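Quick bug: Protein kinase domain-containing protein output formatted oddly.
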Amino acid sequence: MAEENGFDSNHDHMPNSDDTLVTDQCSVSYMTPWATVVALTTCYLLVILWICKNGKKMCLPVPDSLFPYQKQLKQLKRDLSRYLVEDNCIEIFGSPLAQTPQGTLFRGTIIPRVKHRTTERVPVAVKVSHPNPKYSVALLEESARICRLAHPNISRILAVSQLSFTVLRPAVAVEWLAGGNLADYFQHQIRDREERQRPQILLRDVLEVLLQVSAALRHFHETLGDVAHGAVTTENVQLTSRDLRRCTIKLSCLYPPTTSRLPPEIVCSTERNPKRRQESDIWMFGVLCWESMTLGAEPHYQRTPEEIQRCYRLPDRGLTCPQGCPLDVWSLAMECLSEAHRRPRFAGASPTLVDRVQQLRNYYIQSMDCLYPVPNIGNCTCAEHKCKKVESFDRE
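Here's what came back:
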């Protein structure tokens, strides 16, 4: 028993190799406390730097008006990341050009991304949203949709201010062409000039412009699905030059449409903000055809919204066939102004609206037929409307 007890006592006092290793490691770590001090100091410094950088954002709560859009804004920032520029890269000057549903339209310039020796600023149109999160997000969504388009006849987004997401007051720079827009061309180059000073406008040149507009709308509808352009007007048809025979057009979304250019399903709707579908673009393209054939006449000139609604019941929708317009071209315009389910489509089964415009362009490619401006004739003679003066375009 003694031997057994002695054996047991000796066994209890024998050192274990694992315990010795752990003890040695602990003693070594306790002997070098500077590693712990350095590690903790580094962590404290990193925390302090992070608080200094993000402390203000961390302390400020998200406004109630912005909270519903947080996830949406993150996605929009990712979609527009390659267009973000510093705020001082976008310059705005002059008075506003127009008021849009999302904000205000200005002329401006931006610093080009590719530096040249001259470092000239590029002229652009700048959209600035209203100080309301709803309109700001709507403008950013519209910009993100346009960035998905890649077509030579569609105006591009050139830059988006970084402040669009920090203060949620977007400023979006859109391509602006040197030739102005088609509405200004008709007004200043044709309607404001005397007969001998006007350039000769051929039917085939106008059909070429309409063909480019239809090609842009086909790409728009094919790429974005049910999303409509919503503003197919002469003001949004930009020209690369003021020579209609050689210019290239680009369709933009800068100016809002007037009531006289909207389809019946929008004007007669009881909803506050009715949804605009692709059929609306087709109606507005028909009105654009009429404006082009009249060389800039105002549709439903001086008519009230009630009078415009009554015109929708007429066979020609209140837009008479202009002098010099071929019947096949006029027939296509009237099809665009028919009921929504009867209107031709830009995309889908052949022949599309693009195919039909191209057939007309090819048919009149050698034609020397000219178009002449049609005067705006109104019934109002009141002095406050300044309607006593009626346009006259007498041909010599």
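Actually, after a second look the formatting is fine. The chain has two domains: 68-175, 182-363. Closing.
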